[in-house]
Amino acid sequence: MIPRYTREQMARIWSDENKYGLWLKVEIAVAEVMAEAGMVPKEALKNIRQKAKFDVQRILEIENTTKHDVIAFLTNLEENIGPDSRYLHLGLTSSDILDTSFALQLREALSLILTDLESLMEVVKEKAFAYKHTAMIGRSHGVHAEPITFGLKLANWYAELSRDKERLSHALDEISYGKISGAVGTFANVPPWVEERALMKLGLMPDPVSTQIIQRDRHAFVFTNLAILAGTLERIAVEIRHLQRTEVLEAEEPFGAGQKGSSAMPHKKNPVAAENITGLSRIMRANAIAALENMALWHERDISHSSVERIIGPDTFILMDYALNRITGIVRNLVVHPDKMLKNLDITKGLIFSQQVLNALAKKGLERQKAYEMVQRNAMKVWETGKEFKSLLLEDKEIGSHLTREEIDSLFDLTKHLANVDYIFRRVFGD
Fold first, then answer.
1. How far apart are CA 188 and CA 186, in angstroms?
2. Sign of dihedral through CA atoms 190, 191, 192, 198?
3. Helix (H) or strand (E) run with residue 370 in it
4. Which residues are marked as active site?
5. pLDDT in tens, 129-161
6. Domains plus CATH for the chain?
7. Helical segments of 40-149, H only
8. 4 in helix, strand or coil?
9. pTM of the complete model
10. Is 337 helix (H, G, I), strand (E, B) or coil?
């Protein structure tokens, strides 16, 4: 079953309310571990749990003065908790909270993207089997090559999406690390076991060695893999755009009742949704470059990465969530024209079988280059005269000295090109 559109869920993940909620979750996890070890009074922890509330607007108001978001957050907590708030943030630095909570945020967002991706894969798989044996022309350089099926095209998309899913699953593991190691990561003011136990409570692992931050190669891995997925979505979108061209018109994105294609030309049905995916993919790839640039920071840390992540985090994930849901809708409701696919197969008057003729001549003992020249001269006549390729071959006495009429007829068999479709599907989808 395809889940409902997840825009509200993704927006919530990147809201200030959720961000500060995760900050509080990290602070309380550390306080709980310290209370278990007697470093924080249990009554103080109980009071913290009961009264640790925050107000987004109040935090922003305090930050206008402090110019420091974590201090503003802690100040607001102190206003609500009272004196026991001194047991929060003991021995910690701001990045302990920021980087650990960012890991939680990225995990939550990645999990939603993976759900979206699985929904798209389900739709692509369904369409692949529906059009498994629907013959169409395969194109290279945009020019007719040899026959394929529309199902094979969709199976190819599915295989790439499967790799995207595997990469993002690795990215989920890669980002599941936090740090509670204090300023410059030496545990000078907080013991390593506090980090280990607190992160276990949060479902994260301790970064084996951190500076004041978690190193940004982990984050770059996430955003570059999202960029690769964006590339896959664009590849699908570009294919649909080409198939919708008037001269091709083998498939087209859905066109709703009341939809308009042009302010000037009432006849227009444009692939605007697919074009939208292309544009969004460019932004997501650009954001990956920014994530890669974040890796080189001064010494144990600077904050040049922070402003970047405040933009590329929500932007990339919200755009990807939107793009995945949009392209899922396009594929699910794709209008396919099998009759036009068959018609287009015949546009080149049988030239798509030229390799079959070449191979047959080679099997008769001709040198490959000689056979190629014999086939090519007839193929070029098709372009020049518009005659059927088979008829020209039958008129060619040199070819006739090697191949009988019956042998030539047998070479123009579409089923030979598609004989291994089932085998390919088993490789992609399993038995």
1. 5
2. negative
3. helix 368-385
4. 141, 262
5. 999 999 999 999 999 999 999 999 999 999 999
6. 88-254+268-342 (1.20.200.10), 351-411 (1.10.40.30)
7. 42-51, 56-66, 69-81, 94-130
8. coil
9. 0.93
10. coil
